[in-house]
Specification:
The chain has 303 residues and is α/β, with parallel strands linked by helices. The chain has helices spanning 46-54, 91-102, 107-116, 131-142, 161-177, 189-192, 213-220, 231-240, 263-272, 287-297; strands at residues 6-17, 20-26, 29-31, 35-39, 61-66, 76-79, 149-153, 181-186, 198-203, 206-212, 223-228, 246-250, 253-256, 277-283. The chain is elongated. The two termini are 15 Å apart.
């Protein structure tokens, strides 16, 4: 049964090409109002997932549940791989052509969308556009028809720093001002983290992790890991030292996020109190290290 809080759920979504499984039993959960970042290396299966959700490819097996009613892909806008524009047309004429094909032509709406993406006053042919301008036009075209859900496949790929900033700000503005849920893919977690509010990490066609913005921050920030066979006694020592920002991971492991003392001093206090410290060290130094650990180790597939 579909959860009405979700714009999109997939169940065991799979795709095979020539006997090779490129998407393998993926369960995605995207809530209304989110910017969901699908992160993974090139060739991980991100584009194939997006094509299936947008109706551009059929699943080999599994289920795609969109919205909570029968109106489905008509409420989706998508920019997958690259914008489909006619180089000899300007931005308005490209928008008009697509709007006529969709049966949603409205001159003022086109002008409003071009204004949204910063192309309202640009009259030159799109063959003379920079990559960033083409991406912005592609996003405007994807917004024709007033979609509730926008799918953007690697929209910052190949852009210079200014272009990346412009697209990132545009995506945030569309999400906030137009109240549109967005699914965006990238292979660069550092950039995706600046715009996304939740994340799905995919590798070799499988979903490795799904986590919120806060969970990603917790996973990737530096922390002291204490390994002991008596976490209860260790916790009492931490509390005595007024260290409250910690998590008991399991019966043998504690993560301390509050660097109130040095690792050496903390170790000394634990040992003095009778805690058998089997290991104590700092872990989690960057987003990229966390991402690489998920990809390299395969992680645990979340349902």
């Amino acid at each position: 049964m579909t959860n009405t809080n979700y714009i999109l759920e997939t169940h065991n979504l799979s795709k095979k090409y020539g006997g090779k499984c490129v998407v393998d039993k993926v369960d995605l959960h995207i809530k209304k109002g989110e910017i969901y970042g699908l992160i993974g290396p090139n060739g991980a299966g991100k584009t194939t997932i997006m094509k299936m959700v947008a109706g551009l490819a059929s699943p080999s097996e599994g289920e795609i549940c969109l919205f909570a009613d029968s109106e489905k892909r008509g409420r989706i806008g998508a920019l997958i791989e690259e914008p489909g524009v006619i180089g000899t047309f300007n931005a308005f004429d490209n928008m008009k052509l697509k709007a006529l094909a969709m049966g949603v032509y409205d001159k003022q709406n086109i002008l409003d969308l071009l204004n949204l993406v910063g192309l309202a006053n640009d009259k030159k042919k799109t063959k003379n556009y920079s990559l960033g301008m083409k991406q912005r036009l592609g996003i405007a075209m994807a917004l024709l028809g007033h979609p509730d859900f926008l799918i953007l496949d690697e929209p910052i790929n190949g852009l210079d720093p200014l272009g990346i900033t412009e697209i990132r700000e545009l995506i945030t503005r569309i999400n906030k001002e137009e109240n549109i849920t967005i699914m965006i893919s990238s292979h660069i977690l550092e950039e995706l983290n600046k715009v996304a509010t939740s994340f799905g990490i995919i590798n070799h066609g499988r979903l490795v992790r799904e986590l919120t913005e806060n969970e990603l921050k917790t996973e990737s920030e530096e922390k002291i890991e204490i390994i002991t066979d008596d976490s209860g006694l260790a916790v009492s020592v931490l509390e005595k030292e007024n260290i409250t920002n910690f998590t008991v991971v399991d019966s043998n492991k504690i993560h301390v996020y509050q660097f109130a003392t040095s690792v050496a001093d903390l170790n000394k206090k634990l040992v003095t109190a009778g805690v058998n410290v089997e290991g104590i060290h700092v872990i989690g130094s960057s987003l990229e290290n966390f991402y690489l650990s998920c990809v390299d180790n395969g992680g645990n597939k979340n349902a």
